[in-house]
Amino acid sequence: MDIDGKTAIITGAGSGIGRATALRLAREGANIVVADVNDAGAAETVQQIEAAGGRATAVHADVTQSAGIDAMFAAAQQHYGGFDILHNNAGITTGQPRWPDCAEERWRRTIEVDLMAVIETTRRAIPLLRARGGGVIISTASLAGLFGFQADPVYTAAKHGVVGMTRSLVYLKDEANIRVNCVCPGVVRTPLVTSGIESLAGAEREEAERRLGQMPMIDPAEVAEGVFELIRDDGATGVALGVTIGQRRVVPPPISLPVTSGDPQAAAQR
Questions:
Q1: For the segment 56-93, what is each residue's pLDDT rounded down to a tens digit?
Q2: pLDDT value at position 270?
Q3: Of 41, 153, 139, which is closest to residue 93 (Cα–Cα)?
Q4: What is the pLDDT of residues 16-36, one digit of tens each?
Q5: How many CB atoms lie within 10 A of CB 168?
Q6: Is 266 exposed, middle or buried (CB count within 10 Å of its CB: 0-12, 13-18, 19+)?
Q7: Domains along the chain?
Q8: List 155, 160, 169, 185, catalytic entry
Q9: Which long-range contacts (CB under 8 A, 24 or more apart) does 171-174 make?
Q10: Of 48, 52, 61, 238, which has the fewest CB atoms closer than 10 Å, so is most exposed?
């Protein structure tokens, strides 16, 4: 896809990977709808884009609520006549204490933001993109969506779901010219990584900060570059792109069950 002149909706664009992706696509000439629950962060992202000569609009959007999804789609329509790119990037972690000891509302919220919102926003974006003749949907998954991550089992389950859905939507390329892909970064230097540490105290906080200091962290701009590559590559569909420090590579599924003909659901049951 030639990104110049296209419009991208990016959730969680008030900081981290979302902001880095917004800035990257804006440099390529895209109009950006900056969607976030953090109004101050979203406004700062818009300011940075406009300062560089780009076009952007901030919208308050909780992607777990229909009203939030409505708001960002409406903003794209109002300001730019629709959208061509959706980046499902908003995400949270379960935090401490680790599941199953964490509060039920916390782990349920993780599933709602990291998986259910991706499913619902994607579902609602498909007919809009189909009406425009196609487009690209990118989701931010994680290396935790490809491998086990003992520190946060619920987050891991959600990200596995995002990867699985991405790989299962390859048929949309032929049916509607919609390509669905995801990026799977390792530990990225974003506010998400440090969330929860401020609530700790004493030796527990010191240990958390020590572990964090030992982690090799990816710059958000590296992840944004992976998003850019997946949008630009017209052949990329159903791709899970692993992103580590200085490296990006497609991660194949451990097994493949090709559908040869007929009903995909029936084929999956065989």
A1: 999 999 999 999 999 999 999 999 999 999 999 999 98
A2: 42
A3: 153
A4: 999 999 999 999 999 999 999
A5: 13
A6: exposed
A7: 7-187+218-253 (3.40.50.720)
A8: 155
A9: 171/264, 172/126, 172/237, 173/237
A10: 52
